[in-house]
Amino acid sequence: MADAVAAYLDHLRTARGAAGSTLASYRRDLRRYRAFLAGHGVHDLTAVTPALLAGLVPALQAGDGDHPALGEASVARTLVAVRGLHRWARAEGLTAGDPAADPAAPLRAPVLARRAPRSLTVADVEAILGAAGAPGTLLARRDRTLLEVLATTGARISETVGLDLADVDLDGRTVRLRGPGGRDRVVPLPAWATATLRSYLAEVRPVLAHQATAVFVNARGGRLSRQSAWTVLARAAERAGVSEHVSPHTLRHSFAAHLVEAGVDVREVQALLGHASTATTQRYASEQGPDQRPDQAAGR
Fold this sequence. Notes:
Blueprint: H1 2-14, H2 20-38, H3 50-53, H4 56-62, H5 72-91, H6 122-130, H7 138-153, H8 157-161, E1 168-169, E2 174-178, E3 184-188, H9 191-208, H10 226-240, H11 248-261, H12 266-273, H13 278-282
Antiparallel strand pairs: 1-2, 2-3
Helix pairs in contact: 1-2, 2-5, 6-7, 6-10, 7-9, 7-11
């Protein structure tokens, strides 16, 4: 079964153009699925039955000694991966049927609620930016720049750490973000974030970097990883006293909610976020956001 999963992931990468972060999520979710099957003595896709799959959702929600219980969003994401794997296996002739599509395998239930994404207030975002790193250090200046780019562009974390020097236009005050599926977009930076980025590139990065192209580098000079960037944000939020869970996607959600609240057309927000569908962006329209846009905060 491991070979089938590997082949499916390769299919997603080569035929579907899936981003690295998407592939990592699918790999993690399908590892959890394989553990579920192994616990029932099943090690081949041909042996999976609808009756067995009927127990998947409860198992994911309950967790076990080796795996934490999953929330509804994580369960939904895992089910997408499982359904995709079985659909692909049938299309490739690896299995005679698709047990995940059988009504006896309720992988489309329960219906998971689609909640509007949670957003931070402008004051919270400002507090997080101000709490980035130990004051005065090179890494603190890098961290502040990283978080300003995240907060003012609505970029995904993978897009931000993936920025190369050639993607930055300081004079034009824009950055090119490389989205999933090869969908690139150019987004503007406010003047204050551009000034921070200019200072970082001129004074901080040359001291840290041995990596020739990456904008954001780690203490050893290589490209900053997604995990490290996530840690930068988590520590800044903790120091700022922002009690609710904060992730890079929280900043992305906040960016979008602030724009919608300020009256920016949803289609323009869609273009800035790189959403393939307007329906995804429309969820932000129902949020009650703050009365300032991020680039208007704190008198900037």
